[in-house]
Amino acid sequence: MTQQKYLYCKRNRFYFRRRVPGLSTFLSPIFLALGTTDRNLAHTWLERLKLEFDQMFDSFVLLTPALPDKIVSRYFEHYLQKCVSDLNRQINFARMKGRFSADNERSLSVLPIIYESFLEQGIRKRFPVEKIDPEWDEETLKATLHLYEIESRKALSAATGDQLCSIYASLTSDVIKDEEHLAQLRAAHFRARLQALQDFRQGSRAPFKEETSAPPTPANKFMTNSESCVTAGNLSQANAIPTTPVSAPLEKPVPHRMEEARESSHKTLTEPLTTLKKLEDYFSKVQDQAENASPDEWTDDIAHVFWRTAVDNNMSKAVKQQRGSDIRRFMFITGLSKVTEIRQAHLTFWADNLQKFPKNFLRSSKDLHRTVDEVYMNAKHMAPAELGLDSSTRRRHVKSMELLIARARAEGISLTDLNTKDLKPKKKSSRNKHKSRAVFRKEEARQLFSHTIWTGARSAGRRHEPGTKILKDGKFWIPLILGYTGARRAEIAGMLPSDVENIEGVPCFVIQANAYRGIKGEDPDCQEDDKRTRTVPIHSHLIELGFLDYVKSIAGKGHNLLFPDVVPVPRNGSKRSNTEDLAMSVEKFGERFDDTWRKAMQISLHGNPRKLCIHSLRHYVNHTLLHSNGVLDVTRTDIIGHIDNDEKEGTNTSTYRDETPLSVKRDAIERLPRLM
After folding, report:
1. How far is 499 from 341, CA to CA, in rounded Å?
2. Which of 8, 32, 132, 544 has its CA 20 to 30 A from that of 623?
3. Dihedral of the CA atoms 328, 329, 330, 332 (nearest 10)?
């Protein structure tokens, strides 16, 4: 049975529990025993208490008089001037940077509709269905729904509330202490934005004039305080006092400067962010606000600057996650929250501590809830070999900070002279990592596939013990496919059943990006011509082992992935346990089997003295085809893809040619020796 709102049950007894709107972060919830164990009776009493509570709260709201119309109109004029100036600056800047697109134009036409909805029907979580125009196309509808959610969250955010109070204080030298007064200012805020957008849409580019006798515009219907006062989630009627626009100049004009906007910006951090868990939650909370903020709303908060850096550099989801983790670790170590607080000593201290951090930090979920002092305390008992991030990882951390600092300076934030160049550790070797990785020899590859995973194990849970059980799952198929295609682990482990096709009578793997994982070197938003899709014929040995039958069985069961067992099973109560599609949360496909494959190599290769890994199979295929008579380099490249970033094709082999025919690829694939 669904739990009734505000009804709390403890030891079979029922209680009324409700927070005070607007004061939930300062006051404890109201907690009242209903004196019954009967759920039906508790529901009856609950409805009565809810009614009494709402009536009492409404009476508190109207204890003080509403703001005079003259003050609200002054606020409207001041903010309208600011909106017109900001809107012209932003759009001119976007046009001159080549960023003003059809989507921006659509947003300008949609925003007035959203503000009118706020003023007429209040701020809601979703756009009112009755306001949807049947003549809108699909793109306009999507843009309206998306922008409405963003604007509604922004309107009710603490940052916007502080901005309203700050401007009001600058105009009147008074402080807003009443929720109704804040609602009046919020309504004037929307009217000003609506007026500015309508003027802009009508072609007005002239600076705002303080004295005007312009005829009423559609926005004038929202000029009275009594018509709508928007509160946090509902409409609260104010005293009906007629009003007229005031054309007198402001007594205390406030010049629009970026520095002043930053100084009066909302103090975003409400509690010390002493653990990485708190930092993660905070970064997630401010993402929308930071990415959609206008220049006058930009702050020097590190998290806000980071999200704007991510947009400016067009970071993919994976890169955002990695760079964000680097920035959060900087904040975790230094305790800083503002870019303006960063000094050279902080950067040096942070770089030094990256060399003292435990290598296994964040391997356990408990690390998210530890303070930096607790991390250092644990590190004291570790061996020196267990401390210090790898030099390449530290270089990445420094690069993340460089991007953040560069973005802050581009926004005009005043920073001290910061040098990150000397913090980068030197590269251990200029030799390409791919060339230093061991390559399987034919005998070693056959030794690997003589392991019990492929020849017979004791049971599904005892794959390293000899027996008669051959379980043809991801652990069985993925390494074999790597040994017959030269593909990357994630490319095969993250395939869909539909990626196995019969093309021109040849069974093939179509290695391409999908909803779960991309392809290395391919931009998620790239054009069709820039995609790195590869078509690789299936080796006859895989077909003999029953691979095509396996594909049919997986497709028949309706699995989204070709190898569904690569998706880790979530623990009870974890965040992933409530995810509809668990595969969407997999970061590195095939990683779940790493321990199994590593142990298989350890056993079959007698300790694996050459430190071979699963990726060594890719280099084995490349090496074999490279030294096979009759296999051209272009054929090998079309099968393998680029083996490293330094490999370059000549113009004649990359531009002035078509894809290698499937028959030629199949002949090359069949030259690979059978592995078992």
Report:
1. 51
2. 544
3. 90
User: Do residues 512 and 531 lie in contact, with contact meaning Cβ atoms separated by under 8 Å?
Assistant: yes
CB 72 within 8 A of CB 180: no
Rounded distance between C-alpha atoms, residue 386 and residue 371, angstroms: 19
- Residue 482 tokens read as 């790597």
3-state secondary structure of 647: coil
pLDDT at 221 over 70: no
Q: Which amino acid is at 496?
A: L
Percent of the chain exceeding pLDDT 70 equals: 77
Segment holding 508, helix H or strand E: strand 506-511
Query: Going by C-beta distance under 8 Å and a sequence separation of 6 or more, which residues neighbour residue 521?
Result: 532, 641, 642
Terminal-residue alpha carbon distance, the chain = 57
Q: CA torsion sign, 247 to 248 to 251 to 256?
A: positive
Amino acid identity for residue 6 in this structure: Y
Domains observed in the chain: 7-60 (no CATH), 69-246 (no CATH), 271-423 (no CATH), 434-573+580-670 (1.10.443.10)
For residues 647, 649, 650, 656, the Cα torsion angle rounded to the nearest 10 degrees is: -170
Choose the most confident range, by mean pLDDT, from 123-132, 165-174, 337-346, 379-388: 337-346
Q: State if pTM tops 0.70.
A: no
Name which of 32, 31, 35, 27 is nearest 60 in CA terms. 27
Q: What dihedral do alpha carbons 543, 544, 546, 548 form, nearest 10°?
A: 20
User: Among residues 300, 277, 304, 306, which one has the least CA distance to residue 289?
Assistant: 304
The DSSP output letter for 345 is: H
DSSP state of 338: B
Which are the contacts of 564, defined by CB distance < 8 A and separation ≥ 6?
474, 554, 583
Of these ranges, 358-362, 447-451, 656-660, the one predicted with the greatest mean pLDDT is 447-451
Dihedral sign (CA 525, 528, 531, 533) = positive
